[in-house]
Amino acid sequence: MLGYGGMMPMPLRMTTSVLLRREGRMLLFDAGEGIQLSLKRGALGVLGLDAVAITHLHADHLLGLPGIMMFRAQCDEPGPLKIVGPPGVGEFVRHTLDDLKYYINYNVDFVEWSDKSGRVALSWNTGVLIWEPLEHSTLCLGYRFEEGGRPGRFDPDRATALGVPPGPLRGLLQAGETVVAADGREVRSSDVLGRPRRGRIVAYATDTRPCAGLSRLCAGADLAFVEGMFVEAHRDAAVEKRHMTAAEAGRAARDAGAERIVLVHVSPRYTLEDEALLAAEARAVHPNAEVAKPLEAYAIPLPD
Amino acid sequence: MLGYGGMMPMPLRMTTSVLLRREGRMLLFDAGEGIQLSLKRGALGVLGLDAVAITHLHADHLLGLPGIMMFRAQCDEPGPLKIVGPPGVGEFVRHTLDDLKYYINYNVDFVEWSDKSGRVALSWNTGVLIWEPLEHSTLCLGYRFEEGGRPGRFDPDRATALGVPPGPLRGLLQAGETVVAADGREVRSSDVLGRPRRGRIVAYATDTRPCAGLSRLCAGADLAFVEGMFVEAHRDAAVEKRHMTAAEAGRAARDAGAERIVLVHVSPRYTLEDEALLAAEARAVHPNAEVAKPLEAYAIPLPD
Known about the structure:
Two copies of one chain form a homodimer. The first copy, chain A, is α/β, with parallel strands linked by helices. Chain A folds into two domains: 18-149 and 198-291, Metallo-beta-lactamase, Chain A, CATH 3.60.15; 156-192, no CATH class. Chain A has helices at residues 35-41, 59-62, 65-72, 89-99, 156-161, 168-174, 189-192, 212-218, 235-241, 246-255, 275-283, and strands spanning 18-22, 25-29, 49-53, 81-85, 108-112, 120-124, 127-133, 141-147, 179-180, 186-187, 201-205, 223-227, 261-264, 289-291. In chain A, the strands form three sheets. In chain A, strands 6-7-8-11-12-13-14 form a seven-stranded mixed sheet. In chain A, strands 1-2-3-4-5 form a five-stranded mixed sheet, with no helix packed on it. Chain A has a two-stranded antiparallel sheet with strand order 9-10. Chain A is globular. The first copy, chain A, starts with 17 loop residues before the first strand and ends in a 13-residue tail after the last strand. In chain A, 43% of the residues are buried. The mean pLDDT of chain A is 96. The A-B interface holds A 8-11, 33-34, 36-37, 40-41, 57-59, 62-64, 66-67, 70-71, 74, 88, 91-92, 95-96, 99-102, 138 and B 8-11, 33-34, 36-37, 40-41, 57-59, 62-64, 66-67, 70-71, 74, 88, 91-92, 95-96, 99-102, 138.
């Protein structure tokens, strides 16, 4: 959790930004001004950063991207970087780097959304990044990382019973192959594996009113970072500025079946003490809701 | 002192930036990424900010300017802002605001240096801002604020002796007028005032090798913020990258007759502990030298 504020960076609440880390590789959601400071405070580095996904072209989500790119350019051979976002994100970055004549020692691939884009923004062997337009004052994208599934659990007793002893044949079965046992019988992978296990799902959705896109992003998520910018008493401001209250976030996440939600994009009008009210209002509709904490690490257990 | 680091913002050392405050009006020197956080930490506000002077178009001196401008746009009727700097500073700002479609509720006047510019960048009734090209890897400007002088000290005994009693006539004398005393004699301002007193002088010069421009900026300064990026052991890096060591800064300031120097633009390679060495090396040549401290206020006494 690099930051969870809205509108502008504050000393105790940097702008909303989440770093998703999986086996050393990193995907960053949003980059407001100064967010490289959070990376440094957390001693997280940038060498494993493969991609940045920007929700929309507002300053509190974008102004820190050039700084992140320059920080990354301090590494030797950092490898290519993918930057995902709405149309215009590439032009903003290019303008900044050109105006400052800043040399970046790696390739940058811009992946800009259009209404012809499919639901998958990026795809790795480890999972996919989904994007989806939300309902804000400007085009704003929400994201969802879906980790690839894993094979079912291997049953060694069953393998023994079917005549496959410990050894390389078991490895083939676990990898989905069919093998021939010592007695000549064919043993299929499905004979010794339980049902396939799903991968983990993380949603990141901020700067939006409740909408169908938000629900699809949060559907069945293990963890959803969702905007809870205002308390219910300031619901008018949320509606007018196309943001959400904490309760609206909780309701949307609950109805979509998200397991756990962490509220982000808290308005600078609220003190740290006020956050208890945001949390309480979200928890009244979703039992597993909380306000983000700076530099907190949220471990997501592997599904059974 | 909003920051005193070089190259990029660090959690404990923001990029070099100095806010000059005089009777509630403020002039900002440089604005690296996240420098609005220092303004907020110091509870300094931006409503009194009339002008920003940018030394050069490198990220660690410029990336935070759009954020400062947006923060200022949160004020009601903040009044016009002057932005002073090398050619290109206006284009960078316009690109950023345009790409983000950010509306600023005040006029911005860009004052860009050219080789036809005079030595005065800005002029107020309270003083002038001088600029001067330095010697860096790109066009880099140093600055000097010269406060307007004050009349000499008023001598009330002398006024009494010349027949001018306490009252409005003394006010006229202090304002430089000639008055007629009760006995008909003319009394001139110079009869009752000491010698005119000079205003205060503050220099801000970073990202340069020692040069004649640096000396002119520091000449007779009450306080000079001068780059001391490296220790002597890393002098090769200073020469190669067109920066200064702490000792070079101290020597240049001493030879120019600067009263007191504060080292800025410290390299991220140095820890907070290392700063003692930078200070010691500068103090070996200038007795009144120190390394900047975050959010420190440096009061400058009025000259006698």
